[in-house]
Amino acid sequence: MNQLQALLREDLRDFAGYRSARSDAFDGLVWLNANESPWPNSVDSSESVRRYPEPQPQTLRHELAALYDCAPEQTLIGRGSDEAIDLLVRAFCTPGRDAVLVTPPVFGMYAVCARLQGARVLEVAACDEPGGWRVDLDAVAESALRDGAKLVFLCSPGNPTGELLSLPAIAALARKLEGRALVVVDEAYGDYADAPSAMTLLADHANLAVLRTLSKAHALAAARIGCLIANAELIALLRRCQAPYPVPEPCAALALRALSPKALLRTRAHVRETCQERERLRVALSNLPGVRRVYGGHGNFLLVRFDAAELVFRRLLAAGIVVRDLRAWARLDDALRITVGTPAQNDGVIAALSTLEAAA
Fold first, then answer.
1. What's the gap between Cα 317 and its chain centre?
2. According to the model, what pLDDT value does residue 357 have?
3. What is the pLDDT of residues 274-292, one digit of tens each?
4. In the chain, is it the N or the C terminus that has fewer CB atoms within a 10 Å radius of its CB?
5. Burial letters for 168-201: b for 16+ Cβ neighbours within 10 Å, e otherwise?
């Protein structure tokens, strides 16, 4: 038994999962094996929605593998990153015994999935330093080994903090936890970071996995297309635990169109503009009175501390602008997260806060 199988829940090591009518690849003209309607719905112009979709749409799988420079067998497509997070926790954490480690302030779904599974949640808080937020990966390794973490979730760029993690430090963490825990790097905002991906480390670390999504830079949030990239054996283990038809066919078709060369050129242009606007907005906000700090992030958002966050939040709402209120988060009781919009939308944020200054 290798290290990945040893990390899997004992009761799932011989678990084969559910084999659906689409699990086996057959050629046929008349399909009577899945109890589907022989007639399409009147609203289904393509006449394809009456059929169950492929468990892992192969054409989309190959396109995602090309996008992320990996083998198709290293990809698992799911309903956004959330499904992959949930699958990892359910597959590797025995309720009441195993633990998941997170580095708050960070994306909340890691802890939510852990608690729903009955897994303990370990926290190694990120450090708020003059140069920005920093995750101490040596402390992460120490806690994971001492307290029995099966999964370590890292977010790079961090959400909502925006910081990037060092690839050598991630590799060192994976080495320390080899045979003890999986290290999962969530790169939902990786398209906005001018930095190499943790995917470049996968060949040397079987206990490393990377989360990517088409929800952000590719503007397909409602289609719910996420991708876990990892060792092919890990992907095969997780497929046993996945629902039989995770990706609706219309969503897969939409994702394929979004990955065409023409669409990718447009996406990359939007990413470049977002990064330029991120810097423009950062400078503008930094120069406004009442702004305590603007963190220089690497995502498509900025984390901002205010003297009067409630007043700022209400003034932006009055201008029709909705931002993320983080004041209920630990150590962020004066903070808002502002997504970088179009130039006109960003001008609206700046104008609304300039008005607030004049009113004060």
1. 27
2. 56
3. 999 999 999 999 999 999 9
4. N
5. ebbbebbebbeebbbbbbbbbbbbbbeeebbbeb
The DSSP bridge partners found for residue 307 are none
Tokens linked to 45: 């112009």
CA distances from 309 to 135, 304, 349 (A): 25, 9, 14
**What are the residue ranges of CATH 3.40.640.10 in the chain?**
3-259
User: CB of 193 within 8 A of CB of 159?
Assistant: no
The model's pLDDT over 201-256, given as tens digits with 9 standing for 90+, comes to 999 999 999 999 999 999 999 999 999 999 999 999 999 999 888 999 999 999 99
The residues near 203 (Cβ < 8 Å, ≥ 6 apart) are none
Enter the tokens of residue 165: 């993690």
Strand order in the sheet with 182-186: 75-79, 225-230, 208-213, 182-186, 149-155, 99-102, 120-123
Strands 182-186 and 149-155: parallel
Distances (CA, A) of 73 to 27, 56, 57, 61, 242: 22, 10, 12, 8, 15
**How many CA atoms are closer than 13 Å to the CA of 177, on its beta-carbon side?**
34
Residues 6+ apart with CB under 8 A from 196: 167
User: In the chain, which segments carry CATH 3.90.1150.10?
Assistant: 263-359
Q: Which residue type sits at 212?
A: R
Asked if 225 contacts 213 with a C-beta cutoff of 8 angstroms, the reply is: yes
- ∠ CA 45-30-32, nearest 5°, is 95
CATH fold, domain 3-259, is Aspartate Aminotransferase; domain 2 (3.40.640)
CA dihedral 49, 55, 56, 57 (to 10 degrees): -20
Q: Is the pTM of this model over 0.85?
A: yes
CA 356 – CA 321 distance, rounded (Å): 14
299: Cα separation from own chain's centroid: 12
CATH T-level fold of 263-359: Aspartate Aminotransferase, domain 1 (3.90.1150)
What's residue 360's pLDDT? 46
